[in-house]
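Practice record 12: protein with zinc ion.
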Amino acid sequence: MKQKLKQLAATLKAEFQVYKRVLAHPKTPLAAKALLWLALAYLVMPFDLIPDFIPVIGQLDELIIIPGLVYLALRLIPSWVVEECRAQLKKETCMTDFQKLIDGYRRFHDNYFVTDEQQLFAELSQGQKPSTLVIACSDSRVDPAIVLDCKPGDLFVVRNVANLVPPYEQGGGYHGVSAALEFGVSALEVQHIIVLGHRQCGGIKALFEGIPEGMDGEFIKPWVGMAKRAADRVNAEHGHETADDKLCACEMAAIVVSLENLQTFPFIRTRIEQGLIKLHGWYFDIINGEMKAYNADQLKFETLV
Ligand SMILES: [Zn+2]
């Protein structure tokens, strides 16, 4: 509920920015501008257009008059003006967001690279020796280095839609995840592999509920389809639960599928048998901040932190 209210507030704020531009647009009819200004004036300093002695309506006139004025104004504004303002604002926001990255790199360079962590980067320039390989989702909210509070050089990271590991396959091909596993395990000799899943995963939602209408491209469906047995297990074992609980269960079941698939790689299986490598399935709950870990003996996820 709180989340939905926040989303609504963000949408209203964005719409307010759009209509601020619409007000200033040269092709917005003067009558519409006047009505919008009147609505704003009425909001800021309510004056009695409907006398208070008229029952109910007189008391609630702000609730009737402001939306009424806005509605009339919107009817007068050509839709292309609104769309032009919306597109312009989006373009400017993208430019601002991109500029943030350039400014961010400048801060990283000045405050981190050449000062606080100069020694660390001098060592890392000689090579990397991370102890842990993480398979995480591409989701912008679950950057493993941030979530696990790590420094450069700590983690060897593979990120993809829904943090999935495909099964071992022989032969050539564009096996990005398998190539990263091979390098991380055979060359870097990591001692831990963490499959880091998360709540509200769009990839797992696409697997469990299907691709949203209008989003069905070429690649997501077959990619997430590799974890179909996670969805099948949830439908078989959690069929009576709520849609949200089933989705969470599927996110966790997909981590287990990736752990199973990791063991199909001969160079990983051998190292597990030799005690040189350990597999971990972790689940980050982005809503309550909890981290769960898979207990392979109990076949369930337990709170880690
Ligand atoms: Zn995800």
